[in-house]
Structures are given as structure tokens and as C-alpha cells.
Amino acid sequence: MTADQNDGRHRQRSAPLATLEAMRAVDEQFSLQEACGFLYICENEGISLRELGLLLRAQPHTVSRIVARLSTGFGNRASDLVEARTLHHDNRVRTLHLTERGRSLCRTLNSIVLQAVPIIDDGDDAPSTSRSPASTSWASATA
Predict the structure, then answer these.
(1) Which domains are delineated in the chain?
(2) Which of 10, 63, 65, 109 has the fewest CB atoms within 10 Å, i.e. is most exposed?
(3) Residue 78 in contact with residue 91, Cβ under 8 Å?
(4) Annotated region Disordered: where (predicted)?
(5) Per-residue pLDDT reduced to its tens digit, 21-79
(6) Which pTM does this prediction carry?
(7) What mean pLDDT, rounded, does the chain reach?
(8) Partners of 97 in the β-ladder
(9) What DSSP designation does 112 have?
(10) 24 touches 118 (CB < 8 A)
(11) According to the model, what pLDDT value does residue 94 have?
(12) Coil, strand, or helix at residue 93?
């Protein structure tokens, strides 16, 4: 049985798995923490390094590593998805912004989320197309 089949029928990817696969298409070595960091930046463009650390529940050195990985990368693993900018009125604070490549990936991930397939099959052969009113697109602010 393949990963895309379940009991002889085709199984579509859920939105979380599909978004991770799309990120791994950019770089197959993306960690889950780096993917989460990118998603938080998509959702909150202009977020500070400190704020990102709070959302990720990560230490400052870990946040710096993630941001370096998403921006220039390490060695030949450059991503060029985000850039850090220093605030003009406080050069101690750096904010994170999407590059054009990051915006493109964010739009791709947003379309995956909008076409979401439930993670758990409730026994219905057709995927649910209804979305709850409370569900929002995490990347809608950046589109």
C-alpha cells in the first residue's frame, strides 16, 4: 500500500502535510521548527525576532539560527525567503519581512490551506468542502 492509497482508494494530503511538502520542495532539509518560523512570519510580517521567539517558544540563539536559515541560509543551503530589517528609530530591534521568493511560497501555502482536505477521514468518500466561519487563512494578510 502506498502513502497515497488507503484500502485501495486514493487519499489526498491534508493541508498540514501538503504545506510541509511544499516547503520541503524549496529545501528538503527544512526542519519543522524552521517551517513553523516561516509560517509565523507569513502570518505576522514585520514581527520582531523577540516576538518570533515567544511564538516558537525558542531561545534567542535558536531564533537567530532559524532566521539565518530562512534568509541567507548556511553555506549552500540558502533559502532567501525572509529578510531581517533594523528599525530606523531603534537599531537594537530587527523585524522580519518576506522576500519576493518568500511571498511566492506564502501564496502557494495559502492556496494549499484554502483547498484543505480533512486530516481524519470521517467515512465520507468525498472531502468536505465546507469551512467553518471561524477558520481563516493564515496567509491572507500577506496576499
Answers:
(1) 5-114 (1.10.10.10)
(2) 10
(3) no
(4) 124-143
(5) 999 898 888 889 999 999 999 999 999 999 999 999 999 999 999 999 999 755 545 68
(6) 0.72
(7) 79
(8) 83
(9) H
(10) no
(11) 93
(12) strand
